Amino acid sequence: MLRGLLRRDRLSGQVAVGAVGLLLVAALVYGVGRAGATYRVSDVGAWLGATAKGLVVHANGLAGRIDGKAALPAARGHAITVVQDGRTVLLVDETTGVVSRVDPSQLKVEQGRDLGAAGIQVVIGGGRAYTVDAVHGTVQRIDPVTLAASGPVTNLTPPLGRAGVDATGRLWVPVPQSGHLVPFTDGKPGTPVTAGRPGGGLGLTIAAGTPVAVDSENATATIVRPEGPRTIKLPSAVRAAGAGGVRLPATAESLTVPLLAARGELTLLDTGTGTVASVGLAVPRHRLGEPQVLGPRVYIPDESAGALLVYDYAARHAEKPIPVSGRSGPLEVFVKDGMLWANDPDGSTAVSLDQDGSIKHISKYDDKVAGGARKPLPAPGGGGGNGDPRPGDRPVRPLRPGDPPSAPRAVDPQGDAGTITVTFQSSDFGRVRPDGYVLRGPAGGPVPGASPAQVPQGGDYRFTVGGLQCGRPYSFQITVRYTDPRTHRQRNGASARFTSGACKEPAAPQNVQADPGNGTVAVAFDPGADAAAVTGYVLTDDAGTPFPGVKPLGTNAAHRFQVTGLSCSRDYTFRVAAKYTSGGRSAQALSETSATARPCTAPGQVTGFRATGVNHGASLSWNPAPGYDVGYRITANGATYTTTGTSYSLTGLTNDRQYDVTIVALNGAGEATPAHATADLAVAPHARTYNGHNNEYTSTILHTGPSTGDPRAGTFPKNFTGPVTVLCQASGTSVTDDNDPNLKSSVWDKIDYNGVKWVSDLYVNTPGSNAGQFSSTLWSCS
């Protein structure tokens, strides 16, 4: 674990606690004039860690300055995680496993508690707080003020995923082994929601207060709403991200959730509409953090460069990176109250941005604030000092006499005609003089064809590499070689890394973005560098073969292809090639990155769903669901049916019962939230009135059931032709009329005649009476 690492998951207030130990966190406030002094920090702000100084500071995002700070002298240099929700602010010392609470009004830390286990998450939101033990699979509610346990322990199947709290204060805990999200309300578990395949990875983000689970191995996202889950299919790049899955934020204040795969494939899921867009970003092979969305931009932490990579997905182009620390190291990046924050927890700087992308640089060690020192704050190593001498970087000290040489300086690569020539300046050194310099590949191996093999100290500081391809970048490093004065052995020292093209010819297009339509995909891109020589652009598949049926674009056309006639049942992967002429021959520069899209969007929920009971069945109807190539899955009585129409007839049901019927709209891009209806097959509302007949010679005996063997229940008098309410019909014993042997029937009528009774259908003038058949106007009794 990097020393001083500070992570944050806002809104859900989720943290991960590392090692377990005991730490009595002594909190003191620098510069407080009297005991019990009350302070007010800005509402539009955030608490940030400054672990090298043993501080947490509160920053005003609009003003770009610090307006409060509290000290943790015993935790200086520890890994501290800040968790905040409203006025509740918790600090977790990951080095010791102790949780403490910040009192913002007093600018002091209090209520320390040892969590007592490794891998604990502390989750707060909606005035509630929980501990989630991912390793042992336990969940427990705690008091957010005293931090004491306030509910029973619930055991789930470990390991658990990162938990979060939705807009209603309900906790959601991913259980990857079962593929479920388990909700907790006031500390009590509810009915699990299926969100992925059992045994796979299951990530969770809270988007605009709604849980969204991502099953990377199955490439699906499940949006959990009160009316039911909605499943969205994601591009294949999500599945290709591997066992670790895609990177996604713990929370997103907007409806858009960004998902970042290992090679820079960015997927943007609109949880409101279900639309999925894919972007193949040209990102360096750096250590990248979880992407964040604010306004129309996606911000990706580049921890190798200490900067934010920026992509404007509305304008479909990349923007200039935003420096934060300017050096390699952890970055904490999150969105809170409509502002994005990027903090260097080990240094003095932070950055805040608003919805329009306006930047405020923040100096965290400013002393002239509430809780600030009356004298300079002590430096991490002790003694006086005013913090880092340069904003955005660590203090720089000169080389000591025994130090090895620094990395080579002023590296300047130039590419032309398939050859890269790189010039540089000597390393800085003290007593240990460089022996020379070698050119290596990004993995550290020698570069074939590099000339010379080694540049001696004091020589011509220049390397040349030929035989390279145009239109693609090459990464190298120049490493200083020196002799260790203690062992007298030659060693490899520090390296200066660089990336360059091999030609001044056009570079490949970048940032390919694919947006789905109705059987169509729109593919946009940014031209590469040195695009003046480009003669046109060609859309290709992932292998670089021109996509059939799509015409090339001229240089003056909008950088956007429209692909039609595609199937919603599959993904399509696109690249873009820039065409140009090199040495009199046709050439092309193919985009390194690709974008994958399915040419449709998951349909919306069915509306107007009605289930009308009919005899032994139900007649279903609904309005067409919005979407392309939409089908429907119907579930009733334990069976499943499919159709593409807007009506369906269920058969084989039992009368005098109610059936719950569910319908889901679906297509190749996913499934909508289910709609529900109830089919009532009660027979009483469908009773009909008919007159008696065939009673001319004698009275007709009524029974308590559809059999002559059932007890008698009265009679129709002789010559009875009055009205009778027939509730339904059923099969019973066969009856032959005593006076007319041609009248035979095994159909019996359930009637309402001075109470509910049964009579042979021969003696009620129903449509099928004389024929001995059931009448279509009447329902069966069972």
Automatic annotation (TrEMBL):
Transmembrane annotation, as ranges: none
InterPro entries: ECM_Regulatory_Proteins, FN3_dom, FN3_sf, Ig-like_fold, WD40/YVTN_repeat-like_dom_sf
GO molecular function: hydrolase activity, acting on glycosyl bonds
SUPFAM superfamilies: Fibronectin type III, YWTD domain
Annotated Fibronectin type-III domain residues: 404-506, 602-686
Keyword Transmembrane helix attributed: no
Coiled-coil stretches noted in the UniProt entry, renumbered to this chain: none
One Pfam assignment: fn3
Gene Ontology biological-process annotations: polysaccharide catabolic process
Gene3D superfamilies per UniProt: Immunoglobulins, YVTN repeat-like/Quinoprotein amine dehydrogenase
Name assigned to this protein: Fibronectin type III domain protein
Organism: Actinomadura rubteroloni
